[in-house]
Amino acid sequence: xxxxxxxxxxxxxxxxxxxxxxxxxxxxxxxxxxxxxxxxxxxxxxxxxxxxxxxxxxxxxxxxxxxxxxxxxxxxxxxxx
Length: 81
Prior knowledge:
Elements: E1 2-5, E2 10-13, E3 29-30, E4 35-41, E5 44-49, E6 54-59, E7 65-67, E8 72-78
Antiparallel strand pairs: 1-8, 2-4, 2-7, 3-6, 4-5, 6-8
């Protein structure tokens, strides 16, 4: 399992905006570099990307939750070769 951690403090969002679909859901396949969410701090939005290819196993941070640097946001089950 691999984890995607927050690089900065802020509010974690699973969607690109209100009324939009989430970037990814549990069970979705992701590629390395794919956006899985965003963190907002002071109206600045930073895309959070998966470091590895695999399948979204779980979200450890809720949509709209305050997160800190180093907090686990998502757990990814790594793809096997």
